[in-house]
Amino acid sequence: MHTMKSRITLTMDPDVAKRAKKIAHARKTNVSALIEDLVRNASVTAARHDASFVEKWTGKLRVRKPKNADPKLEALKKRYDLK
User: Fold this and answer.
1) Which of 35, 49, 52, 73 is the most exposed place for a label (fewest CB within 10 A)?
2) Strands (E) located in 1-83
3) R_g of the chain, CA atoms, integer Å
4) What pTM was estimated for this model as a whole?
């Protein structure tokens, strides 16, 4: 079954366009098929801003104070000169 394709216009930096043509040529396809494949295989979540690990977790983790003294922790603090 053949489906009708829609024509769209893309605007991009000339250097990016040249690179797209080189990549398409190397893959023995055209730029339209290259872009179509890229979009088809891209996940929706990847399209969102990918925050760094620090941005994702800042303010979400808390260091819990031990109820009782931990001898191993105290030994490590002493060994590595930590407070």
Assistant:
1) 49
2) none
3) 26
4) 0.49
